[in-house]
Structure to design on (392 residues):
């Protein structure tokens, strides 16, 4: 494997470098959906030229968004890069763009559709680019849990909070029940606000972000948090546990960040003396505790920008981003926290052939893979998103 800088070493391959999601067909989830269309071959030597030409032909009619976890071959065509919330904001700030091509995953395109004008079309280059974490909270399951809280008489005390990484259906549920959306940057502010509205929070769908924020930033005990498993009767919890809990965490997690373990941290500290371990709050609680720094994707990028030359960093987040950070900081030693590769398989479904196909379809007057959220869901989801924007 190539060295991309003097200090960067490509992690070794796992037998399954891409987590195998998206297999088979599962119409109730974001994944397992075939992408229509006649894609160009990945080996086509003209792909870069074709994407460049199609984008130039479309001009200001198209605006291409690229999430930080996208492949380099796609990111080079992005008009703007960012995390999911920044990209949704950027989409909303381009009311004149007829087409928003979202190089990210399905829930992000949904958020962009909610925040853009009705006549704008949001396009996902591969419909199979879902998010396994978002899929872990399905509306019917969440409504069943809420009914259980109502039967117990605690629903009036509970404020639902959902991470940005959730479907529009879940954001709509949260909006209808006077809750708020949060990102990994503002999770503490969202929880502070929620605990002013009620005495309990129902945190969806990422248990780790909820737990890490509550315990490490707000001073709760681990015992204040309970895990609601939608696959068990009554979430696998007793009535007493639910009555006593301050944080009811949904049993969801990110398949990528969930791979980092306490052993990854111990191992890198032995390999790289003096290393600073910097992880995303979607990592497990014990990993975040063992790290030196924790923060959102934007925090990680800024931390590397501010780091002194010669410092060493082991980063626990998606590999495409970590490799780009290593390239951008050749004066620092940047290491992937794990020894082996793990990309987000669904993010990686958006590759150059899908982007070329999408742009060329638009040039031909056809609009592929449009992501739309129905008006009722969008209206309710907007309430929860607006509440996030209004956080003190
Ligand atoms: S990195 Fe994790 S949270 Fe982000 S899209 Fe992939 S599975 Fe979802």
């Amino acid at each position: 494997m190539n060295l991309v800088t003097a200090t960067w070493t490509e992690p070794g391959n796992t037998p399954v470098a891409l987590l195998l999601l998206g297999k088979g067909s599962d119409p109730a989830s974001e994944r397992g959906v075939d992408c229509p269309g006649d894609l160009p071959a990945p080996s086509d030597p003209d792909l870069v030229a074709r994407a460049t030409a199609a984008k130039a032909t479309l001009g200001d009619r198209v605006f291409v968004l690229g999430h930080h976890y996208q492949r380099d071959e796609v990111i080079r065509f992005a008009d703007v890069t960012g995390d999911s919330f920044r990209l949704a904001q950027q989409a909303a700030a381009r009311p004149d763009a007829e087409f928003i091509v979202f190089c990210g995953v399905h829930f992000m395109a949904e958020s962009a559709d909610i925040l853009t004008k009705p006549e704008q079309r949001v396009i996902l280059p591969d419909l199979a680019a879902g998010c396994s974490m978002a899929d872990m909270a399905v509306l019917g399951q969440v409504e069943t849990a809420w009914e259980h809280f109502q039967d117990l008489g605690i629903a009036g005390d509970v404020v639902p909070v959902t991470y940005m990484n959730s479907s529009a259906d879940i954001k709509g549920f949260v909006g209808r029940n006077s809750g708020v959306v949060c990102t990994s940057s503002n999770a503490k502010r969202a929880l502070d606000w929620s605990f002013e509205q009620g005495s309990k929070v129902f945190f969806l769908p990422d248990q780790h972000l909820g737990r890490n924020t509550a315990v490490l930033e707000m001073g709760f005990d681990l015992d204040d948090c309970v895990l609601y498993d939608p696959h068990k009767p009554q979430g696998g919890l007793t009535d007493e546990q639910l009555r006593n809990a301050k944080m009811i965490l949904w049993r969801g997690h990110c398949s990528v960040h969930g791979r980092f373990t306490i052993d990854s941290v111990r191992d890198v500290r032995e390999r790289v003396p003096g290393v600073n371990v910097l992880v995303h709050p979607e990592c497990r609680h014990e990993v975040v505790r063992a790290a030196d720094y924790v923060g959102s994707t934007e925090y990680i990028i800024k931390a590397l920008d501010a780091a002194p030359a010669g410092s060493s960093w082991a980063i626990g987040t998606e590999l495409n981003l970590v490799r780009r950070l290593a390239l951008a900081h050749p004066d620092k030693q940047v290491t992937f926290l794990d020894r082996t590769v793990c990309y987000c398989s669904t993010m990686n479904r958006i590759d150059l052939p899908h982007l070329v196909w999408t742009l060329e379809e638009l040039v031909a007057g056809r609009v592929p893979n449009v992501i739309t959220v129905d008006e009722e869901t969008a209206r309710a989801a907007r309430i929860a998103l607006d509440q996030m924007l209004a956080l003190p």
